[in-house]
Amino acid sequence: MSAFGAMGDGAGTTGTSTGLAKVVTLPRGRRGAELIMLAFAIGVVLFAYASVGLGLNGHVPTGLATYGVLFALLMLAAHLAIRRLAPWADPLLLPLAALLNGLGLVMIYRLQEAGRNGNPGNPISTMSASTTTFQLMWSTIGVIAFVAVLVVVREPRLLQRYTYTLGVIGLVLLALPALLPSSISEVPGTGAKIQVSLGGFSIQPEEFAKIALAVFFAGYLVAKRDVLSLAGRHVLGIALPRARDMGPVLIAWAASLLVLIFESDIGTSALFFGMFLIMLYVATQRTSWLLIGTSLFLGGAFLASQLVSHVGLRFSIWLHPFTYANVFCGAASVHVPCVPSYQLAQGMYGLGFGGILGTGLGHGQPYLTPLVQSDFIITAFGEELGLTGLMALLLIYGLIVQRGLRAAVAVRDPFAKLLAAGLSFVIALQVFVIVGGVTQLIPLTGITTPFLSQGGSSLVASWMVIAVLMRISDTARRPAPQPIQDEGMTQVVRAI
Amino acid sequence: MNHALRRVSLACLAMFLLLLVNANYVQGFEAGKLADDPGNGRTFAQQYQYQRGSIITADNQPIAQSKHVSGVYSFQRNYPGGATYAPVTGYDTPYSKTGIEQAEDKLLAGTDPRLTVRNLIDLVTGKPRKGATVQLTINSAAQKAAYQALKATGKPGGAVAIDPSTGAILALASYPSFNPNKLATLNGKALNKADKKYLNSPQQPLLNRAINETFPPGSTFKIVTSSAAFSGGKYTPDSRYYAPTNLKLPNTTNQLINYDHTPCNDGTNPTGTGKVPLIYAFTVSCNTVFGGLGMKLGGSALRHQAHAFGMNQELRIPLKVSVSRYPPVSDPALTAYSAIGQYNDTVTPLQEAMFSAAIANRGTLMRPYLVQKVIAPNLTPLVTTEPTELSHTASPAVAGQVGRMMAGVVAQPYGTAHSMVANLGGITVAGKTGTAQNGANNIGLDDAVFTGFAPVANPRIAVGVVVKGGGLGADASAPVAAAIIKAYINYLNSSAKR
Fold first, then answer.
1. Most C-beta atoms within 10 A of its C-beta, which of A70, A494, B94, B173?
2. Is the pTM of the predicted complex or chain greater than 0.80?
3. In chain A, which residues have their Cβ closer than 8 Å to the Cβ of B47?
4. Are A329 and A340 in contact (CB under 8 A)?
């Protein structure tokens, strides 16, 4: 067994065992593989971009050269930064993120063009003619943030030092929209207070709070996990924690309920609490924490659905999206309770319309779904790329989560392990909540689709998450420092 | 911690599996259901992405076609015939359809199951989907003549022409009509404006008077009364029947009178106390004779005969036709009124044409139909209508007797429709006029009714015309019938020469 056994695939090393070999084969970072896959991802994105233009008006988009080259350069820059800053990082994460980011840009361009410049469809009033340019700008900021994280965080352990600082920052970011007046923090028409909007420029602080709190949870749990894993009473064969250790989970639960009530945002609330629970479970290996946490959350959510009308509506919409009053809300009589499931119903129609193979990019009518460019972007993909495209996207997300969890398994440092697990799981949960929501699997809650949705905060935060995961995988796969060698030595024999 | 991590991985795997399974369910299994949901605007807009089939006349004139346009919708529906053909084609708006556009929608749209295999082949070969062409039985010459003649009267009315030997509808016109092009617009504002204008117009231009408005048949109903009388075997056209100037009715002070209170006098009955032959009474349209004859035959015999002519029955051509009614009647006085097409008798112009068509076709009434055939986009015929019998109205002998009387109405100098001979250019016509009182206490203007067929010896066309408030049938409706007959017979002659 090699000393690098824990590093996972592709990082193994072999030393020459015979003769006077002067070359020691170093463990491979697989940056070449990353570059090839990145080129493939860029190719897919450019092809999709051209396909949108051909589907809409029969012409290759005029911006193909400029936008295409910009996007390719951006991703190459990220690749070069990795070569320098995290040469041992997982080679799959960057191509996957680039592919998602690129496809998101393509779909946003497609939606922006609907009804504009003589293309079929109605223009989407919530998008301007420069939305794609803005999104590309945000992608640039995202990649800069990605590189910045790699530059600043040279070791995952560095973050551990700022556990409580980041915890405070995370909580402030999370609470900020609730404390600000509705005019600044409410997303128009949804009732959810989740953003900070100033002068037409809006940021969703929760996206960044997610990362800060993940670091805080990891640091806190690493410190306290021994205490938290102490068993208390046994009930039905399950070892319950001691009552005095219930504090942290109750605080997290209360915080998530406050988010739910004051920001009317069940999605974010579920995301944070879910992330905390999973990290608590990984840290303590106690199933009882999961059970306690889940029942606390479900109970709280049920209570909130009774108390907060916004949350109660979501359930009603989920159960009966296609009733006449719901679909034709405006036309319904005032005596009929009118539930605005128009958006969900339109998204479902879009998915149904796309069928197995989809209409092809530019051939569908995704613009009929309100706000399709943000929460419902996955239905636009489902409509135009069909079930096939939707499943491909889900598999890309699945691979990102899998690579993240793999880094968590491989890394030795418990803090990094917890952080990678929390961030990977939160990506999975976020995809599950939003994709499950728009496909009527679970009640719909408005959260962004990582990398795809229009909007800067989510995109930048997603790139930062990828950066942290790559930093952790870089640490996990980095070979142990080579012993200083004398000139005369010809060979390093590693312990077997 | 790796043990817990593996479980977390499994949980993530489960979440993604759930999403995948659900996506497969929604897009694979529910797709059809979602597409058919009434709220789904995508399917609705989709219909304008394909070329809808054309509607053409029997003589291959396009009267509804889809033309390629640029914009949101790829195709724009266009009606070259405009108001003339509107009662037949109907309209195709983004929100509703009428007429053939509605009745044959699935074939025109190309979504009919009979087109599925062809659509699949087109999908594979990369050809765009296209709707089937619907060829009607309508003859453009007869249709144009019908609409122009109705329009010339300036009064609301309907006219229908049928090929008596097949039941094929040659013309189906209504006035006032509407311009379907105004409703086929894909401009929402213009559509709303046109829709409002037509809906609120007191002239009811959207009403298809040829098949969806009923009028009292008046004296044209004497065709039914005569058929019932001759079928009983006791009477022939030459039978003499009691012909008073005023017919006293039982259990009422009302008396049945002839038009203008004149006696029914063929030269033998100057005082209105004797009898006249039925053929004479038919030719000059004596109410008292047929009122009396009707009372003698009884309401149920008349009702039976009316049913044989297609009254009191649902009919689709495939447009839905309003039912022409001869309600049950037992009171003798009311029976007398009903025998001359008053009381509660109501007919559509199509029913008027069916009276004559049955007589012209030796008593056999063919089922009226509008669609001759449906032609798939690759020009193979998909559906071809075979003529079928609707009912036996009378024996060939009885039909011959009634036909002889109808011929007299036009040919005899004293016949009520003799004036139309001048407009016929030598074509012989058999017919019957009707001048129907209507409105409460008969204060409305009389409706002018005419039914007939031509040529007498070898009938090729049967027509029914009603002009609301037109006055005498001979004045307002007979000229419309003459115009249709002349246009169609001339068309037949010229196409035979070719």
1. B173
2. no
3. none
4. yes
